[in-house]
Design brief:
Layout: E1 3-6, H1 7-12, H2 18-22, E2 34-39, E3 47-56, E4 64-74, H3 78-92, E5 96-100, H4 103-112, E6 127-130, E7 135-142, H5 143-146, H6 149-154, E8 161-167, H7 168-181, E9 185-187, H8 191-200, H9 214-228, E10 254-255
Parallel strand pairs: 1-4, 2-5, 4-9, 5-6, 9-10
Antiparallel strand pairs: 2-3, 3-4, 7-8
Helix pairs in contact: 3-4, 7-9
Length: about 260
């Protein structure tokens, strides 16, 4: 079941003690590979944090990733959310902490990385800011492959590679869709997530995600990409942000695992 925490409960009942908040969370095996992924809402909006276990074994021998838990923080200030992330990192020891770099997310990241606020934080290098407005490299092609044969013969120089890029929001949608198609990601039976998927059926990547669950999953997808390929490139000439529709996600992949 998802864990829903109100800011007033965190402050009044837990004394703003993030270590106390995470103490009763389900543990994971010691050698587990973990991603923490989150889309940060403004103070009045929920912040959803997903705990993802990577490369879980399956009977057919093909590993898959599993979303173990969703934690929703309601009406938390930036510093309080940073405290929760630091406590979660200490508890789960993630390989990546992927956080959306919107206005609210940037404030949380800034707090987390502050030596003054969290001098003992040992997972600074695992913090992965996710800027959905940035292009990422999808492929690197030999320019000669794209040339007209006559042009190729006339060319006297070795062609430079052509970068095929896409804006991160569209790219992360594609990676998620691929994982569902190949049964590479298992989701819990979480009503909030599936309600958001239902709303996405009719629209593309520009849909506003009021519960911040779909962008949380996109952050996970980018963290997985960063771990597997590390092909993030600086903004150059972008091929465009082609919208990708979520309709074919629903009913795909593994759920309720």
């Amino acid at each position: 079941q998802p864990l829903e925490i109100q800011g007033t409960e965190f402050r009044e009942k837990m004394g703003s003690d993030a270590e106390r908040l995470v103490r009763d969370l389900p543990p994971v095996p010691q050698d587990s590979r973990v991603i923490l992924a989150s889309d940060i809402g403004e103070t009045a909006s929920p912040t959803n944090i997903g705990v993802f276990l990577l490369d879980q074994p399956r009977r057919d021998g093909k590993p898959f990733d599993r979303m173990e838990l969703r934690i929703a923080l309601h009406r938390f200030e930036a510093y309080e959310r940073a405290k929760v992330f630091v406590a979660l990192a200490n508890y789960y020891r993630p390989e990546r902490i992927a956080i959306d770099m919107g206005h609210a997310g940037s404030a949380v990241i800034s707090n987390m990385l502050s030596q003054e606020l969290f001098p003992q934080f040992a997972f600074r290098d695992q913090v992965l800011p996710v800027d959905f407005r940035k292009p990422v490299e999808m492929a690197r092609l030999d320019k000669a492959e794209a040339m007209d044969p006559a042009e190729r013969r006339r060319s006297m120089r070795t062609p430079s590679p052509v970068l095929v890029q896409q804006m991160l929001k569209g790219a992360s949608t594609k990676w998620l869709r691929d994982r569902f198609y190949w049964d590479g990601l298992s989701l819990p039976n979480d009503k909030v997530i599936f309600e958001e998927f239902s709303r996405h059926r009719l629209v593309g990547v520009r849909y506003t995600d009021p519960q911040h669950t779909i962008d949380m999953l996109r952050c996970y997808a980018y963290a997985r990409y960063d771990m597997d390929y590390r092909l993030l490139v600086p903004p150059t000439e972008v091929q465009g942000d082609a919208p990708l529709v979520f309709g074919e996600w629903v009913g795909s992949g593994t759920v309720g695992g």
